[in-house]
Task: inverse folding
């Protein structure tokens, strides 16, 4: 039996994108074992995976902080006698851990990120607008290098079922014949956030429909302030900030009819429970390889005619034009139409 350590510390969306690969691997190699190493807060992503997948917490802000802490983590992991290490992050921390394992005689394999190809996609001049290999395939490639090719056949963390939301009725109410829409209007970077006044038009449109219930997904003070403002104006809209853990949030997502998300973690979380996602892309582009699992290109919303797009792989670069035309050029009516094409 092979015992494999798989490492990916962040970010939420990137760790979520490992799930279809790890799940597919676990189903195809039930005689072998994976231990997934990541931050404690991300453990719920792996709680519904096959029994040969377990989770190990890296307390990077606690006892595993810094080089000394990483060495402590290595000693803990070494005692578990891994036969292979697969680094799906390939950053300084994970390279250091992989190096220690390599010194101890354990074969290690790492993710190839395709940075040069992505640079050509986002450079200002002489862009090469070509679709890059998806992160899912890059993760699968790392497994194949280790001697375990993976057929990616994942559907949902709940299989053919839905998550249990029986305890959430005080928050959600009964679904009945209602259409449930999730809206996750924020992202880490400004270049990926559809302007809030335009997003509010989308919220307002569906808030007045008695056959629809809108749930707002997010976290953080700025988002909470925005959501509180919206729910005051549109009493039928439900803000979920501070009301759900990640596991119950995933369960609720599995009962949505559609999710509207930026190029952000919520796109990937919703994809793990097999619901359609309408995704909005501004500074970034699906060609970089970060589309949600099995999400359809027809459900993306973006301004195709801008020659400056994409200008960033992750959306963190300020707009050199200064006007974020890639986002302001998307009319709310277009977003509404995409949602209605799925729920009606």
Result:
């Amino acid at each position: 039996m092979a015992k494999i350590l798989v490492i990916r510390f962040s970010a939420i969306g990137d760790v979520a994108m490992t799930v279809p690969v790890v799940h597919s691997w676990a189903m195809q190699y039930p005689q072998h074992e994976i231990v997934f190493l990541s931050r404690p807060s991300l453990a719920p992503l792996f709680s519904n995976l096959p029994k040969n997948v377990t989770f190990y917490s890296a307390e990077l802000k606690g006892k595993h902080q810094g080089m000394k802490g990483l060495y402590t983590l290595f000693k803990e992991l070494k005692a578990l006698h891994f036969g292979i290490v697969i680094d799906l992050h390939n950053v300084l921390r994970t390279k250091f851990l992989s190096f220690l394992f390599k010194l101890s005689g354990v074969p290690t394999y790492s993710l190839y990120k395709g940075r040069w190809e992505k640079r050509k996609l986002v450079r200002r001049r002489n862009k090469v607008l070509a679709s890059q290999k998806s992160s899912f395939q890059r993760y699968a490639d790392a497994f194949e290098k280790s001697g375990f090719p993976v057929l990616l056949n994942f559907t949902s963390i709940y299989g053919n079922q839905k998550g249990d939301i029986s305890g959430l009725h005080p928050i959600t109410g009964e679904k009945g014949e209602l259409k449930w829409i999730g809206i996750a209007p924020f992202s880490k970077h400004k270049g990926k956030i559809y302007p809030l006044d335009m997003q509010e038009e989308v919220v307002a449109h569906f808030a007045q429909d008695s056959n629809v219930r809108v749930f707002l997904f997010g976290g953080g003070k700025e988002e909470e302030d925005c959501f509180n403002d919206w729910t005051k104006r549109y009493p039928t809209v439900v803000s979920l900030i501070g009301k759900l853990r990640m596991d119950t949030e995933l369960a609720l997502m599995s009962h949505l009819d559609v999710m509207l998300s930026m190029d952000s973690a919520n796109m990937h979380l919703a994809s793990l429970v097999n619901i359609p996602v309408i995704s909005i892309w501004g500074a970034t582009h699906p060609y970089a390889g970060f589309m949600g699992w099995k999400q359809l290109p027809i459900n993306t919303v973006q301004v195709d005619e801008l020659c400056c797009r994409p200008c960033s792989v992750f959306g963190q670069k300020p707009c050199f034009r200064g006007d974020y035309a890639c986002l302001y050029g998307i009319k709310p009516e277009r977003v509404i139409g995409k949602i209605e094409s799925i729920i009606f």
Q: What stands out?
A: The chain has a mean pLDDT of 97. Residues 171 and 318 are 38 Å apart (CA to CA). The first helix runs from residue 12 to 28. The radius of gyration is 21 Å.
